[in-house]
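User: When convenient, might I ask for sequence and structure tokens for a protein?

AI:
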Amino acid sequence: MLLRFTVNNFASFRDETELTIIAEKHHEDLAVRRVPRSPQWALPAAGIFGPNASGKSNFIHALAFMRGAVLNSHQRWRPRAEILRRPFLLDPEKANQPSEFTIEFVAEGIRYDYGFTCDSKEFLSEWLFSYPEGRPRRIYEREAGSPIVFGPTLHGQKVQVEQMLRPNSLFLSAAAANNHKQLLPVFDWFSEKLRIAWEHNFESRIRETRHYLEKHESKAILALLKYADLGVSDVSFSDVKLPPERAAKVAELIQQLDSEAVTVSPDSISAGMKVELSHVIGGSDFKLPLEFESSGTQTWLGIVGPIISTLMHGCVLVIDELDARLHHHLSAQFIRLFQDPRTNPHGAQLLFNTHDAGLLGPDAVARLRRDQVWITEKTDGATTLYPLSDYKVRSIENIERRYLGGRYGGLPFFDEELLEVVISEVEAVNP
């Protein structure tokens, strides 16, 4: 369960910016979940709206950076590698200041507050607090150049892990790599519960769809494919095999690179994956390769696996550009899966960004409440993120119309004088 995420000095976020998924009140018709040992409720979905280049995707990228640092900084980053953060570069002073990331979430029934600061060379600070009884309890705090301060409840090989730390690795990452059992639930939340879907991991998402369709024989996968009204009746996957001689050479190379690896069989070497979707036309079945399908069909096939997995296991699914290549009504049905308590019984959450103002309309299938709507604006290159709940919005108001009318900000500005330049140049051409 994600509760809030805060970022400072990353990409277009010059100043501290926070998004919270805590409900203003208990929405009885939504799949809200009670925050443990708290009167608060966590929302099942939240959307970020705003014009192009206003920073919507940068917020997702900040969350992805934090997740990547937790998962990879100790084992996968080179010892002296630069920390590839993205400070705000349009302010010379800010560009040299640290970046900060803080996240509050619930793992295995316990609320945690975790965060770190870093520059391009090292992690300057790191902290982890838990709230097992509703009050903060320190697990550890770290400041560069000083010994880590451990809370009285943290046991295990904490000192040994501290000795292994590099300036560019997180203690949480190092502890998980060394199987510190008390900290594994926190690490596992980042690894297994926080899911991010963007263009960079399309192939892995397709493989997840295949996994649930073949290994779990998931009827829900096919149901969602058919529900989207894409004309798809079935989907099949197969591995593309290399010629035997080439497969043997690849297997031999893998063995040479890792002598301790289990013997690799040439038959297990794959050159890729073939995906075909079936269409029933006039009573006959036709199969088309995935690359011949529309971009919308490809996008939906790459997300139905993560959707089912997220709903089944109560995860957090973060989507960059939800409306990209998906029809408005399909995007709305996507959100509806998370909003409806019947399809979301395990407390899964959806965080997305979009341009689709239709999702705010009074007739939207999955109407977002005002505490589920966040808006981005950019001034002098810096992004501001604020909730719609900052405005007094009556339940009878048409939020879509007022948003498009500029009532809440977050709209592009079009300078009509610039069009005169285009008009004069076009008119000057003698056809």
Summary: The mean pLDDT is 87. The radius of gyration is 24 Å. The longest strand covers residues 270-281.
